[in-house]
Specification:
heterotrimer, A mainly alpha, B mainly alpha, C mainly alpha, A: mainly alpha, two-stranded antiparallel sheet, 18 helices, globular, C: two-stranded antiparallel sheet, 24 helices, 71% helix
Chain lengths: 513, 101, 624
């Protein structure tokens, strides 16, 4: 094993922490230094993440989990600092790298207290990497919480409040709701984790050994079915699972641009990832029993989010509800218990992460310039803001599932998975085709709201008050352009991604009863 | 002199201290009452240590610990009492309810 | 033949290059796009000759694209007569339209400011359509299908500063997207049922034992729903007339070679699927007929030149669908090709008029243009006569084939209604020609002159083709079109003439033209006015496009947006305010009530401790 193979995963966690520590040490007045430290660290993370993705060996016969690194921590309890990636985690690591880099570039727009902003941002990034790379339940949960806590300050201090005709959403409300709901949900997860640890009773939090024990009947079917809802709701909430989704639009709207990018782009995926890693892997019988519920809720997410998005008048709220809708495809894909569907779900996590980061980057740029996000006021921006329009339209087309961009491949796989899913309602009715058809309908509704938005905000006659709005700066163009590349790449040539995902999916589905 | 005598004396001192803590109004007297209670416990520790028959000094060691901690505690508490006296002009415990819900 | 996949690559390459670097190229790279499409056009011919050489029929060249789970998706190609015919039409019309656009997008010596983008999307449009006709599997076909939709969106909305253009683009995309919901469900059903995406494999095993025929039937209907959206069939036709908001050459492309032909092509490509299902065939024929009649009726009353042409397209697409429903695969594709050439010419002529007449499209403000614009008016007239079904122009032959197919495959009601549609077709085309090119020149049009040569030449070329291409139906040099364009699984059939239908169609077409001359041939419009008075109600309904746009608008405003608004309110008031804030406020309220137990007095806490210790001690003492 080369040096990189031995250490890259842990350094993906240490580096952002180290960055935060370095930033703590430098004086607050050195803004430019803080920015460059942040961007440089983001670039290093991107390189490391790409390395993990490329180094992942997907050939037949390769280990399911690779780049494994273990540091014994509390031997008596069985908690070790244990890292490793499989086919599901590798694309997520890459996603985190891309969004961390572009997010830290966009974060350079923050004027107020840039240093502390970056510190919190990097703590959050460390938490995200840790969750994706942990194969120890304790540390998975630890990093999961670590990723959530900085959100509160980031939103409450640097966020923005929105005022509507008949109600107000302050940034403090958004921050509080987001953190309280997620933390409350994580209590459920924590209960489930402790219960798994105690009931399986092999004295370890190691996911791999727990998995093997569960496979050998170490956890009764009844226990699995009891614990699964805890995991489903606990992690599902972070994935925006209906009806626990309302933190997501409000939180994303209140958050500053780069935090929205990271949060909608990466953090929501932690939820879906948690369902796969803890729910599907450690509670296979519970997953099987509850799949149809998850399936239905996921479909509700898709349709409900899309319809809600249609009547929003705030650009960020549209994107926020669209995230709820798109995470529905991920949930649907997981619940199909079908290899095509789960592959689609994983790819959708990646695709949606990039797409929504691009959305928030562009919308944030518009807001910084126009100081409004009201779609009823903004109009005709296309003529003067060519780059802004181009990036928004690309993100929009990805979200409505246009072929040639990543969203299509992911969604179509989810649909095919849904139609071939064996999941039944009450043991008789095969719910897949009906729910899949509703999902396809949801994609059409997405087209309606995205195109309405584009037509209203970017096309048409321009109001003179927007004449002076400048287009994106070169830095923003670079960051947004970097996000477009993976969208197109996955859309045109998804094979490398699907190859990496395949072994992970096969291993997980192979563990189901 | 049996262990019981020490026990009874200790209990008596403890109850006096408890009464003082609950009933006195002056913060200084409350502190002194807490000292009484601590010393009652110390007496117990030493007595048990002496009568246990093992010949170890565990009881005395812990009593010394308690005395040390009590000293620190009194130092801190008196400082608080001083601040209270300066800011409120009195140390009547019944009037100090800043932690009321 | 195996290298036929390269044909769309020219267009995709041109798009990618222009999209990224157009700002740095002379003329924003417009000539590059034209060169790319010419290269594609040239590349079609070796494919044709190779196929003639190796045998007319289905040639399949699979290639791997990606796989997920058990699903294998390729980007292979099918080369068969249908593909080659479509390739030839698409590349040819694209070349003509792009060359023409070089002139059209130039006003007073300067190019449109986004000319590079225009040509880039044009390239993508042609390339996507080429990919669509080459695709060997359902998923790749769907990919191309959606890309075609995207390009139409971008081009219809090319002048996006105009609110109407932006709305029309959105309408086109959303309407076809609604059809695509059906298509995608149908496609996924087929993929899941047959476990493969390969079209040839699926079409070959439709009747296999173990195949759920209910799924086959359902997917036939669903796929056709998608075709209805793209091919502007009733009731999803509403986007087509609005699509006129794009630059006129775009309309020519959409109506002749890309976009609307995609639906007809799809039904032809998956012909066995529909052939296997009688009810689906009947549905196709009926929808086609309704579309044909509605389109013709609306074309008759419109006063906007481009709208007349748009409704004419709709009507002719109805003909094609009708033919497919009747089992007339050859007739439908043949008409698709002939109509493509004629309609391209008509739109380019209309564009030529608009270019000269300051974007005027109202035919009531035109008249007598034939003296000022001889080439344009000759081309328009030939195209109109061809679509009216006058021999020996090209669409006459294809329409005759359709008539044969309909008479052969469907009941007499269809035949009679189709004959009526033929009369209407001649009538509205006659009207358009007479009103626009004959009569007196209006004073505001005195400064009109013929368009520049780069626009006139394509017209002349198309006019020549419109005259001669019809003869490919005849058994000259081979046994006729019926032996070339053969439905999968069908026997080739030789060219045949049924005199009664031939005479009927010519007489009816001429009758329609004569009627047009009677009504519109003179300056005096009293007869038309009288008719309009007489049938005021019917005219009103037709002129308002059967109120379908109104109905859709009403549905969107009053139903869809209302539901969406209600749901958003529900989300805020119930899910958030009750579901989320509720427990939060509950906790606050509980705290507010419970806080009175906390006095803040030292003695109270002390007492609490004492009582607690006493209780615990007692419990311990009594050994509970």
């Amino acid at each position: 094993m080369s040096f990189a193979e031995r250490h890259v995963l842990e350094w993906l966690i240490y580096l952002p922490m180290l960055t935060a520590a370095v930033l703590v040490a430098i004086p607050a007045a050195w803004r430019t230094t803080a920015r460059w430290v942040g961007i440089g660290s983001g670039a290093l993370l991107m390189v490391g993440s790409a390395w993990v993705f490329i180094a992942f060996d997907y050939s037949a016969g390769a280990e399911t989990f690779q780049l494994i690194k273990v540091y014994t921590w509390l031997e008596s309890v069985g908690i070790d600092f244990r890292l490793g990636v499989d086919g599901i985690a590798a694309p997520m690591i890459l996603l985190t790298g891309i969004v961390a880099l572009t997010g830290s570039v966009i974060a350079a727009n923050v004027d107020r207290d840039a240093k502390n902003y970056y510190i919190l941002l990097f703590v959050l990034i460390a938490g995200v990497y840790g969750t994706f790379a942990s194969i120890d339940l304790f540390f998975l949960f630890f990093f999961y919480e670590l990723a959530i806590v900085p959100m509160f300050l980031l939103i409450a201090v640097w966020g923005s409040s929105s005022t509507f005709a008949d109600f107000v959403r302050t940034k403090e409300y958004g921050a509080l709701k987001l953190v309280l709901m997620i933390v409350a949900a994580s209590v459920l997860v924590w209960i489930a984790i402790i219960a798994i640890y105690v009931w399986v009773d092999i004295g370890t939090f190691d996911i791999l050994r727990l998995r093997d024990a569960v496979q050998d009947g170490g956890l009764s079917s009844g226990a699995q079915k009891t614990l699964f809802p805890l995991v489903m709701v606990g992690f599902g909430l972070l994935a925006g699972l209906w009806p626990f989704h309302t933190w997501s639009p409000d939180g994303h709207v209140a958050a500053p641009t780069s935090v929205s990018m990271l949060h909608a782009g990466v953090l929501m995926k932690l939820g879906a990832f948690g369902i796969i890693r803890v729910g599907m892997t450690l509670l296979p019988e519970g997953m099987e029993a509850w799949a149809v519920v998850l399936f239905i809720l996921g479909t509700v997410n898709v349709v409900y989010g899309a319809i809600s998005a249609m009547s929003q008048t705030d650009l960020k709220y549209v994107i926020g509800y669209s995230s709820v809708s798109h995470m529905g495809y991920v949930i649907m894909g997981i619940a199909t218990l079908d290899s095509i569907g789960l592959t689609g779900a994983t790819l959708q996590m990646f695709s949606h992460g990039i797409m929504t980061a691009l959305f928030f980057a562009v919308v944030g740029a518009i807001y910084e310039r126009a100081h409004t996000r009201d779609t009823l006021i903004l109009n005709g921006l296309a003529a003067k803001m060519g780059w802004t329009t181009a990036f928004f339209v690309i993100a929009g087309l990805t979200s409505l599932g246009l072929p040639g961009l990543s969203g299509f491949i992911a969604e179509v796989l989810v649909f095919i998975g849904a139609f071939s899913s064996e999941v039944t309602l009450a043991g008789t009715f095969r719910a897949g085709p009906l729910l899949g058809a509703l999902g396809i309908l949801g994609a059409a509704i997405t087209a309606v709201y995205i195109l309405r938005l584009v037509a209203r905000v970017f096309f048409g006659q321009r109001d003179p008050q927007w004449d002076a709005l400048p287009d994106l700066t070169p830095r923003e163009i670079l960051a947004s352009g970097a996000l477009v590349i993976p969208l197109v790449l996955v859309g045109v040539w998804p094979a490398p991604f699907l190859d990496v995902i395949r072994p992970g999916v096969d291993a997980i589905l192979g563990g189901l009863p | 002199m049996t262990l019981l005598h020490f026990q009874l004396l200790s209990a008596a001192i403890f109850c006096i201290g408890l009464y003082g803590v609950l009933a006195r109004r002056s913060a200084v007297l409350v502190l002194m009452s807490i000292e009484l209670m601590l010393n009652a416990v110390n007496l117990q520790l030493v007595a048990f240590g002496a009568f246990s028959g093992f010949g170890t000094s565990t009881g005395q060691v812990i009593a010394v610990f308690v005395i040390t901690i009590a000293a620190a505690e009194v130092g801190l508490a008196l400082a608080i009492v001083m601040r209270l006296f300066r800011s409120r002009g009195g140390v009547n415990m019944d009037e100090i309810d800043v932690m009321r819900g | 033949m195996e290298q036929a996949w390269l044909i769309p690559v020219f267009g995709f390459g041109a798009f990618a290059f222009l999209a990224l670097f157009r700002k740095y190229l002379p003329g924003q790279g417009k000539h590059l796009a034209v060169l790319a499409i010419i290269a594609a056009f040239v590349a079609v011919w070796p494919v044709l000759f190779d196929m003639l050489d190796k045998g007319v029929g289905e040639h399949h060249f699979p290639r791997d694209w990606f796989s997920a789970g058990p699903l294998e998706v390729g980007w292979g190609i099918i080369v068969d007569p249908l593909t080659v015919a479509m390739l030839a039409l698409i590349t040819f019309v694209s070349v003509i339209v792009q060359v023409y656009s070089l002139g059209y997008m130039r006003h007073n010596g300067t190019d449109d400011s986004r000319i590079g983008w225009y040509f880039a999307v044009h390239s993508l449009f042609s390339a996507s359509m080429l990919m669509l006709v080459l695709a060997d599997n359902l998923l790749l076909l769907y990919v191309a299908w959606e890309l075609v939709g995207l390009c139409s969106y971008l081009l219809i909305g090319f002048w996006f500063e105009r609110r109407s253009a932006a709305e029309a683009a959105k309408k086109a995309f959303v309407t076809t997207r609604i059809g695509d919901v059906g298509l995608l469900i149908g496609v996924v059903l087929l993929i899941v049922e047959f476990g493969t995406v390969d079209i040839i494999e699926i079409m070959g095993s439709l009747g296999d034992p173990g195949v759920n025929q209910a799924v086959v039937t359902a997917s036939a209907f669903l796929v056709f729903f998608g075709a209805m959206g793209k091919s502007a069939q009733f009731p999803l036709h509403v986007w087509l007339p609005d699509a006129m908001e794009g630059p006129t050459p775009v309309s020519a492309l959409i109506h002749a070679a890309t976009m609307v032909t995609a639906g007809v092509f799809l039904v032809a490509r998956l012909f066995p699927l529909f052939d296997a299902t009688d009810s689906a065939q009947m549905a196709i024929a009926s929808i086609g007929l309704v579309t044909a009649l509605m389109g013709a009726a609306m074309a008759l009353v419109m006063t906007d030149l481009k709208r007349i042409l748009a409704y004419s397209t709709m009507s002719h697409l109805g003909f094609m669908m009708l033919a497919l429903g009747a089992g007339g695969y050859t007739a439908a594709i043949f008409h698709l090709l002939m109509h493509g050439i004629a309609k391209a010419m008509l739109f380019l002529s209309a564009g030529s008029i608009m270019h000269a007449a300051h974007e005027e499209t109202d035919i009531r403000k035109m008249g007598g243009l034939r003296k000022r614009m001889p080439i344009t008016s000759a081309a328009f007239t030939i195209g109109a006569l061809a679509l009216a079904g006058i021999p020996p122009l090209n669409a006459f032959w294809s329409k005759d084939e359709i008539l044969l197919a309909v008479a052969d495959g469907l009941n007499p009601v269809f035949v009679v209604l189709f004959l009526i549609a033929i009369v209407l077709s001649a009538l509205y085309m006659g009207r358009a020609v007479l009103v626009v090119f004959f009569g007196k020149l209006k004073p505001e049009n005195l400064d009109i002159h013929e368009s520049p040569r780069i626009m006139a030449w394509p017209l002349a070329l198309l006019a020549g083709l419109a005259v001669v291409t019809g003869f490919i139906a005849l058994p000259i040099g081979y046994e006729g079109i019926g032996t070339f364009l053969v439905a999968p699984g069908d026997k080739p059939h030789a060219f045949e003439v049924v005199p009664i239908w031939l005479v009927a169609s010519v007489v009816l077409a001429l009758g329609g033209l004569a009627l047009a001359y009677l009504l519109y041939g003179k300056e005096d419009t009293s007869r038309v006015d009288a008719l309009r008075e007489r049938f005021a109600r019917a005219h009103d309904i037709v002129a308002n496009r059967f109120y379908m746009d109104h109905a859709y608008q009403w549905t969107i405003d009053r139903v869809v947006l209302k539901v969406s608004g209600l749901l958003a309110r529900f989300d805020r008031k119930v899910v958030n305010d009750v579901g989320v804030n509720g427990p939060g406020l509950g906790a606050v309220e509980a705290g507010r009530r419970l806080r009175y137990h906390v006095t803040g007095l030292f003695a109270d806490y002390g007492l609490g401790i004492v009582v607690g210790v006493a209780v615990l001690g007692a419990l311990l003492w009594f050994g509970v």
